[in-house]
Design goal:
- The chain is an alpha+beta fold and 102 residues long.
- It has a single domain (12-92), classed as Hypothetical Cytosolic Protein, Chain: A (2-Layer Sandwich), CATH 3.30.1230.
- It contains 3 helices and 7 strands; from the N terminus they run βββββββααα.
- Strand 3 and strand 4 form a beta hairpin.
């Protein structure tokens, strides 16, 4: 936990990656959101309205989530094909890290 002013420990919200199921601090993960109009998109601010799910910012977790369909389960919607392609395109821009392999 991070130390705040006055010597108090600061609460760091924890979230679970929907691909590899490991927990990290909220700021360490990328949020995807089902918007109120039924679209699925990357939420770079982490504050967009709608149901959210979190993924690590590495290509392996994005590929795993897209391949296994965990995005549809987590967001309780079947994403449109163009939304899936946009997520896949975003995932290809991410670095390949030493996370779990697909």
């Amino acid at each position: 936990m991070a130390r705040g002013s006055g010597g108090r420990t600061r609460h760091v919200p924890q979230r679970t990656c929907i691909a590899c199921r490991s927990q990290e601090g909220k700021r360490e993960l990328v949020r995807i959101v089902r918007t109120p109009d039924g679209r699925v998109e990357v939420d770079t601010t982490g504050k967009a309205n709608g149901r959210g799910a979190y993924l690590h910012s590495d290509r392996a977790c994005w590929e795993k989530a897209l391949k296994r369909g965990t995005i549809a389960v987590a967001l309780k919607i079947t994403p449109a094909k163009d939304d899936v392609e946009a997520l896949r395109a975003f995932g290809t821009t991410l670095p390949v890290e030493g996370g779990e392999s697909v």
